[in-house]
Amino acid sequence: MYYVNVQDIRLRLDAIPDLIQALDELSAVWDGSALHGLAQERLLHLAIETVTDVGSCLIDGYIMREASSYSDIIEIIGGEEVVDAELADRLKALTALRRPLVQEFYSWPRGELHPYTPELAGWLRRFSDQVGHYLQKEQ
């Protein structure tokens, strides 16, 4: 018997619309300022944490194989068809930003709009939709 903490998953998924709105707004007004750069870093980081937290909840709840890294979480939920292969590839690339954002923040190119920032809102929409469909299918 599986124990999937759907409430925890939903709490995290419910945070995605705010991230999407902020990403869309930031991309539209990007000026390279320190404020925009720091906001972008935080949005990228929150997106990574949201996706990997949801993935970890799914992995634990559905007793999928053990994840050994952030990118492995995405690989597992892609392999289990929680998300499609194209989205899994994009999310793996996103998770690769975690280390530079968290551990090497002092050298992050803060004045540049990261190429993922304008695209990330769409990825997060797809992620939320696909996780929702997976939960419906499995219950």
Model description:
- The termini are close together.
- The protein contains seven helices and no strands.
- With 139 residues, it is mostly helical.
- It is globular and about 45 Å long.
- The mean pLDDT is 96.
- 72% of the residues lie in helices and 0% in strands.
- It has helices at 6-14, 16-29, 34-61, 70-79, 85-95, 98-102, 116-138.
Poorly predicted sequence stretches spanning 5 or more consecutive residues:
none
Q: What's the Cα radius of gyration?
A: 15 Å
Beta-sheet strand percentage? Answer: under 5%
Query: Given the C-alpha coordinates, what overall shape results?
Result: globular
Please write the string of helix (H) and strand (E) elements.
Answer: HHHHHHH
Structural class: mainly alpha
Distance between the termini: 11 Å
* Mean pLDDT over the full residue set: 96
Fraction of helical residues? over 70%
Largest sheet: none
User: Can you count the beta strands?
Assistant: 0
Count of runs of 4 or more consecutive helical residues? 7
